[in-house]
Design goal:
Layout (H helix, E strand, L loop, with lengths): L8 H14 L3 H8 L3 H11 L3 H6 L5 H30 L4
Protein name: Transposase
Organism: Alkalihalobacillus alcalophilus ATCC 27647 = CGMCC 1.3604
GO molecular function, one term: DNA binding
């Protein structure tokens, strides 16, 4: 049985970046580049979690961006509280 065409890793990563940057459907991009849709889904699953690609992903709506920013604020406030408690603990003079 013949194996399918092999694509280099750089092509796969660029395809996933393109999907993330342009907020396009995987099926549409797969048709554009002439690759099976399931293959492209596999690339997204494999390479979509890499830090450089995660940073590229744009928010699909203002609501999603707002929720993400609110979560980040909550996380940072929690971290600040922990640091304040640690500061008070270490600032106590031993008697």
């Amino acid at each position: 049985m013949a194996r399918g065409k092999r694509y280099d890793e750089a092509f796969k990563i660029e395809t996933v970046k393109y999907i993330s940057e342009n907020n396009k459907a995987v099926a549409q991009v797969a048709r554009e580049i002439g690759v099976n849709e399931n293959t492209v889904h596999g690339w997204v699953k494999r390479y979509g979690q890499q830090p450089e690609i995660k940073a590229v992903k744009s928010f699909s709506s203002d609501v999603a961006e707002l929720k993400a920013l609110q979560k980040e604020i909550r996380d940072l406030k929690g971290e600040n509280e922990i640091l304040k408690k640690a500061m008070h603990y270490f600032a106590k003079s031993p008697r």
